[in-house]
Design a protein that fits this description.
Helix content is 67%, strand content 0%. By secondary structure, the protein is mainly alpha-helical. Helix 5 packs parallel to helix 7, helix 10 runs antiparallel to helix 11 and helix 12 packs antiparallel against helix 13. The N and C termini lie far apart (55 Å).
């Protein structure tokens, strides 16, 4: 039975792939894909020179056995390449804990260079920073988090501040509960930190007009309560 199910799934997958390949919209985008692949060739060639064999840049996944060795190479190429797809792919490949302590400086530079706050690449760079930044990058992260001109591109950076439990971090997150672009993410971060001082503001946020803000405030209050209860039990 299981073999038959697996075979059926395989057939369904093959049929779907055939449908996609035959779709006119897919064929129309082929020149774009070829251009992106060509733009990525120097990066792929550099990876191969360092013994990291991949057929294309998209094949360099987090589980690749030599992903750690690839990180400095990707960091080197990020400010050099111009093709948006290649840049996005490099940023996504750097969005892993293995890049922590290596990728953040160049990611900070790239984030600041990208001016449009609604740029999907800028958001992706912010997400990568939330994963790869270390204590030495905290001041930069806090400055970015407070800079409203970065808009929603700050979302994951604000959420990632929960990895840095300092008085300054908590102060900034409390302030960001009034920032419409990132208030939901600030609430989630404060919940992760178990920030009791945030309870009054989070309680008021339960009546916020924004659904996500209300949802994250509710979850944060629950998390803070759990952390407080756990701490009280340990003291007893």
């Amino acid at each position: 039975m299981k073999k038959r199910e697996a075979k059926n799934r395989g057939k369904i997958f093959i049929d779907l792939v055939k449908q996609v390949l035959q779709d006119p919209a897919y064929r129309e985008k082929e020149p774009l894909r070829n251009a992106a692949k060509a733009a990525a060739e120097p990066v792929v060639a550099d990876l191969k020179r360092h013994g990291i064999t991949v057929d294309e840049l998209g094949g360099l996944r987090a589980g690749h056995p030599k992903i750690k060795a690839a990180i400095p190479i990707l960091v080197k190429w990020l400010p050099v390449v111009e093709h948006p797809w290649v840049r996005m792919t490099i940023v996504r490949r750097l969005s892993i804990p293995a890049a922590r302590g290596v990728a953040a400086p160049i990611l900070l530079e790239e984030f600041k260079k990208l001016k449009a706050p609604a740029d999907s690449l800028k958001w992706a760079v912010g997400n990568a920073l939330s994963i790869t930044a270390t204590d030495r990058d905290l001041d930069d992260l806090l400055n970015i988090a407070e800079a409203k001109n970065h808009g929603r591109a700050r979302e994951m950076i604000v959420l990632g501040l929960s990895r840095f439990d300092t008085e300054k971090t908590r102060t900034v997150l409390l302030k960001l509960l009034s920032d419409d672009d990132v208030k939901a993410h600030a609430a989630a971060a404060l919940g992760s930190l178990g920030a009791q001082e945030a309870v009054p503001k989070l309680t008021r946020m339960l009546a916020d007009k924004d659904y996500l803000a209300r949802k994250e405030a509710k979850t944060a209050l629950k998390d803070i309560h759990k952390r407080g209860s756990h701490f009280s039990k340990r003291r007893k």
